[in-house]
Write a structure and sequence with these properties.
The complex is a heterodimer of chains A (257) and B (359). Helix content of chain A is 31%, strand content 13%. Chain A contains ten helices and seven strands. Chain A has helices spanning 26-30, 38-43, 73-85, 94-98, 110-117, 148-160, 171-177, 202-205, 222-231, 236-244, and strands spanning 3-6, 9-12, 14-20, 45-49, 63-67, 88-92, 139-141. A five-stranded parallel beta sheet of chain A has the order 4-3-5-6-7, sandwiched between helices. A two-stranded antiparallel sheet of chain A has the order 1-2. The chains are: A alpha/beta (257), B alpha/beta (359).
Chain lengths: 257, 359
């Protein structure tokens, strides 16, 4: 048994596997970033299957990181098999948690999308679904890409058996700590007030409005948010487009628009 | 207090020397908003040319130089069965130039809460004592209401305060450190004429306030209006984003988090400024939330700001800078909320007799 000693307790390394579905694999690649603590991070893990970091191909994992959304029937079967093995299944990244950018396809008739992207080819495809549409998800780590610092913290909590939480507050809270000028003051619609924080306001710090990759924060006040966009005479179409970008606000979107 | 007058050109030499040789922060323009208004923040400066002396107000206060948004309180190191805790209160000396009277008042209020209470904060003390504060007076913005809170003038809490009297600054020197620095530069004792110009300047500032908030007996009105529908009305607008508390010069509430290092050989205890408007501010272990509604959370922010808590002797801690009102995307601001509460109170007065009956 590979283990670590601390204070008389024994922690087992996390037997982990990582799988990619319809995605760019950018979230998995994040796991190899933040080099200063990379070796310590890998010490926490017993990597059983993770094609970006290891040549191991074992199927005796406890934790499965699922990156990407589902856009083919065979992906559904593959995911169900992973679910049967994993004790903890983690939706890893915005595509897995909400469908992500891939979901934009769902706005068009399926065959129209195929004809546009793969003209004249036979493509096996289906409307994009998030992971929790198909299997039970035990934990979600949102972000496009995920924040490695947050992933590290969560893995430490998994290893030590501590409570795992994500920030409940919106991006604005962290944006103010960066002393950024509010994107609304600069005349832009920004999803910061309704999007879960934890990203350290990385986009708005670069003067790019938040597109909500981390999904809704707890108890968002949608009527107040829509009123703020209306009162400032900003475009309702722009609002709908931004909210639809990652499909993270599906339940709040105006489907008529 | 010692009063001196310094020519603005000589003041520039003084600040150049000070800002060049010290880690310094002052107001700088960071953006122009969509209405064409300049946006300022306290940022690093290394010469007087970097400082926007004609700035209006910074979007965020100077609070975070004393209460950082995130601060490590202690570190823990584990070794076999034992552990060590390391605590340091070190703060490098800094210069803060360009604070307004209300900003300095805010520091005095934080001193009351964090230094003069039963449990003085060594973290705050280290930063406060190592900060050289240069205040500069200014004409109020249309929505400033610090005069209503009696924080538009200031007599303590700074090293030197500069009043703009035309060609010169009228200096109020409040520390031996500032006095000794200034010995190297050409200053003079104020003449009658300078005193007149100072009084005139103060009068102009005092008469320039366009916003007024009636805060008479506000603590008791807040007590009486605990169940007022006004809280729900304004609470329904609240986005729960905590922006108000972040930009506020006196909101000092915080949360504490402890986290293992990734190598599991150590841990860190961190303090993070928090806001009573965030949904989980009053959530406790087991998941119960004492303030589940926006209106309740907003109410307690106003209670803390305008009624005060025991730790600061039930004094109002709002200084009237209206940063929260300017930053709130939902348009919630102290002036409108307090006026609404007063209206609520006064609307019932028509139904009672003008004087009580004799017993």
């Amino acid at each position: 048994m590979i283990s670590m000693k601390y204070q008389g307790f024994t922690f087992e390394k996390l037997k982990i596997a990582s799988f990619d579905f319809t995605c760019c694999e950018g979230c998995q690649l994040q796991l190899a970033n933040r080099e200063s603590s990379l070796l310590d991070f890998l010490e926490l893990l017993d990597i059983r299957n993770f094609r970006e970091l290891s040549t191991e191909k074992n199927n005796d994992y406890d934790i499965a990181l699922i990156e990407g959304s589902l856009s083919r029937e065979d992906e559904v079967e593959r995911l169900q098999a992973i679910r049967r093995q994993a004790k903890t299944l983690i939706a890893f990244g915005t595509c897995a948690c909400f469908g992500g950018v891939n979901s934009l396809k769902n706005k068009f008739p399926l065959q129209e999308s195929v004809a546009e992207v793969y003209p004249g080819m036979q493509i096996d495809t289906m409307p994009v679904r998030k992971i929790s549409d198909v299997v039970k998800v035990d934990l979600s780590i949102p972000g496009c890409p995920v924040n490695k610092e947050e992933v590290e913290r969560i893995m430490v909590h998994l290893a030590t058996g501590s409570l795992i939480t994500l920030p409940n507050y919106p991006v604005c809270f962290e944006c103010k700590a960066q002393l950024n000028t509010c994107m609304f003051e600069l005349g832009e619609i920004c999803l910061g007030p309704i999007t879960r924080g934890g990203c350290n306001a990385v986009c708005t710090s670069g003067k790019t409005p938040c597109l909500g990759c981390r999904g809704p924060s707890e108890e968002i006040n949608m009527p107040a948010f829509i009123e703020l966009v209306t009162e400032r005479k900003l475009s309702p179409d722009d609002l709908q487009e931004k909210m639809a970008f990652y499909n993270a606000f599906e339940e709040f979107c105006d489907h008529e628009a | 207090m010692i009063y001196k007058v310094i020519a603005k050109s000589e003041f520039k030499r003084f600040t150049d020397a000070l800002l060049r040789d010290n880690t310094s922060f002052g107001p700088r323009q960071v953006d122009t908003d969509s209405r064409g208004t300049a946006v300022y923040q306290f940022l690093p400066v290394s010469s007087s040319d970097d400082v926007a002396f004609d700035y209006t107000a910074t979007a965020s206060s100077a609070k975070h130089f004393f209460l950082p948004f995130r601060e490590e309180l202690s570190r823990f190191t584990f070794n076999d069965q034992e552990w060590d805790q390391q605590i340091t209160y070190e703060a490098n000396p800094i210069v803060l130039i360009g604070l307004r009277a209300c900003d300095i008042s805010a520091l005095n209020i934080l001193d009351d809460v964090l230094l003069n209470g039963h449990f003085p904060s060594p973290y705050y003390l280290a930063k406060r004592k190592n900060t050289f504060v240069i205040g500069i007076d200014h004409l109020p913005l249309p929505d400033c209401f610090c005069k209503s809170m009696s924080h538009h003038t200031i007599s303590t809490g700074f090293n030197v305060f500069c009043s703009d009297i035309g060609e010169d600054y009228y200096l109020s020197i409040n520390s031996s450190k500032a006095f000794n620095f200034l010995k190297e530069f050409e200053t003079r004792d104020p003449h009658d004429d300078d005193n007149c110009r100072l009084v005139e300047r103060r009068k102009i500032i005092s008469n320039s306030f366009l916003s007024e908030v009636d805060v008479t007996a506000l603590p008791s009105i807040l007590d009486i209006e605990f169940d007022s529908p006004v809280w729900e009305k304004w609470g329904n607008k609240c986005l729960n984003c905590g922006t108000c508390a972040m930009v506020c010069p006196t909101c000092y509430c915080y949360s504490v988090e402890e986290s293992f290092d990734t190598d599991l050989k150590g841990a860190s205890r961190q303090k993070k400024l928090y806001s009573c408007n965030l949904v989980d501010f009053a959530e406790v272990a087991g998941g119960h939330n004492f303030r589940p509604k926006n209106g309740d959370r907003l109410k307690y922010r106003y209670y803390h700001q305008h009624r005060g808590f025991a730790e600061n002797a039930n004094q109002q801690i709002c200084v009237g800078c209206n940063r929260c009102g300017r930053a709130c995307l939902a348009g919630i601001n102290p002036k409108d909320v307090i006026n609404d509460l007063r209206m609520e109170k006064e609307s019932c007065l028509t139904n009672i007799s003008s004087s009580p009956d004799r017993i």
